[in-house]
């Protein structure tokens, strides 16, 4: 089930969705090791004057990235988006992904993300501006429309293809629906039928069986998984196994989970340093504990620790007990 994004061949039909504050370099590497065919970076603002903040600097680290390096940008100005694309390519991006799917208020207030879906002419200008500014493939992530009354995902998809976009990810809800309500797999299927570039189905894919159902139903080239990978990065391996063998992969052993969690936390400490690393580790460990259905007081104990080595010691104890 391989497909191409420009000159890059992606051999596994399951993609890690970009998630702000989550898909940092350690998490992208982890998901790639666990079978994600493509991993997309956190959204970076198109305003390069803001790149000096610590948060943006961390998001712009593309060294030692798994190839092809896909970097997502967000903004509402065709010129600024083009500049951001060029600068990211200079920093090592091999694919530029444009965000027109984010429903977050702080992104919408800048008329970016899914707010752009209300203005098809501006969508076209941004896409053409970015595509013509770089010599790497440009991809796009959208929702099915701004609201249930304004479902124009199909029109946007056609504009995208005409503008030179090389692949399209579709979150099967409108902006107004955020992450609630049924996912519109019918709309994703219509979009796939109407355009010839690869289409990725996104929204509420929580299991290997569901991934196969969505691919069979929509005929999409890949599924894009976001929230279901939090605390469960092995979901990519599970999906690949099920698609290949039509049988469920046995869940990872306690020892395997322990190794994943501890190596992930170590990578966060190394990437962010002790102060930030221990804090960012808390939310990831919280998601792992949810996956493990942990009901002990361990999480509140872990969240009070501010020392990197202490975190690792406590995790070792948790998996032994």
From TrEMBL:
Binding site for FMN: 18-20, 72, 141, 202-204, 226-227
Species: Marinomonas ostreistagni
Position of the signal peptide: none
Domain DUS-like FMN-binding: start-end pairs: 15-316
The protein's name in its UniProt record: tRNA-dihydrouridine synthase B
InterPro entries reported in the protein's UniProt record: Aldolase_TIM, DUS-like_FMN-bd, DUS_fam, DusB, DusB-like, tRNA-dHydroUridine_Synthase_C, tRNA_hU_synthase_CS
Cofactor: FMN
UniProt-listed NCBIfam families: nifR3_yhdG
Active site positions, chain numbering: 102
Keyword flag Nucleus: no
Family assignment from sequence similarity: Belongs to the dus family. Belongs to the Dus family. DusB subfamily.
Gene name per UniProt: dusB
Function field: Catalyzes the synthesis of 5,6-dihydrouridine (D), a modified base found in the D-loop of most tRNAs, via the reduction of the C5-C6 double bond in target uridines.
Alphabetical UniProt keywords: Flavoprotein, FMN, NADP, Oxidoreductase, RNA-binding, tRNA processing, tRNA-binding
Reactions catalysed: a 5,6-dihydrouridine in tRNA + NADP(+) = a uridine in tRNA + NADPH + H(+); a 5,6-dihydrouridine in tRNA + NAD(+) = a uridine in tRNA + NADH + H(+)
Protein EC: 1.3.1.-
